[in-house]
Amino acid sequence: MPCAGSPYHGFTCYPNHCPSSAVNQCSYLSSQSLQSPIHNPERMRILTTPRRALTTPEKRDYISAVQCLQSQPSNLTSLLPGSISRFEDFLGTHIVSTNSVHFVGHFQPWHQYLVATYERELRQKCGYKGAQPYWDWTLDVTTNSSIFSAPVLDPDTGFGGNGPYVNNAFTPRLAIPGRTGGGCITSGPFANLTLHLGPGTNVENNPHCLTRDISPLVTNKALSFAAVNATLDAADFCSFDIAHGGVHLGIGGELGTIADVYSSPGDPLFYLHHAQMDRLWWKWQQMDPERRLKDIAGPDTGSRIRLISKGTGRLQECHDGF
Ligand SMILES: [Cu+2]
Asked: Is 306 a residue whose pLDDT tops 70?
């Protein structure tokens, strides 16, 4: 039977099994997910716009549009009582969806859709004319300390840098090696940003700052060319594992906003990272588009059955990866 209206839209379920709870949780995912970007101008625009290649005025335009979104009133206060802006509506949507969109087969397309919707909002609400840029972090981990001088973290044309070091020796959550920060960021256009949703699952009004806790040990291991190449070598989606945590835990460390699985979109870098994730997925698909454009795998949100399509248009159980 066809899985209409779910992240698996267009797929035929096997054996006669639609991921029912995924349909409930994610019915707003349109058929644009999993669609070839050639037929989807929004996705194509994101996939072909590296942030590094933007001119300084273009970089400023993007950041101004994000700040504009942070000044637009929330449309979702009934669902997210603490939200004060459209920017926080996206953050809150991620918070309340987290448990059904992570560690599941539709993780990638759901986040792709979130980024595309965010980009559309920047354009429609804030007059942004450019594309949602992606952050190719492989170019920023060439030496042990190069992440600190990444253009994307520039205090003038970027998103600002690390927070000051906070000693967290007695309350470690994730045991991140080599963490260097943890406090409120002190530079860049978001140094004085107040977030109201999060940390964790909180969607009530809880003012707090944007924190980063960079660990070069984590970024350099997880975000290297070698790590990406290993990812792109995957034979099928079942074993396709993008270095997704490298930014969340390498930039967010132990105490940083972007390390919080629920409220990570409080850091505007989240969207540049997930645009890169989508780009790498697309690169992998392009190596064998016949099979890979419709190859998806992983647990659904209800039964957690491991499913894989292997490009056949049929979902099957996935026995490795995930
Ligand atoms: Cu997420």
From this structure: no
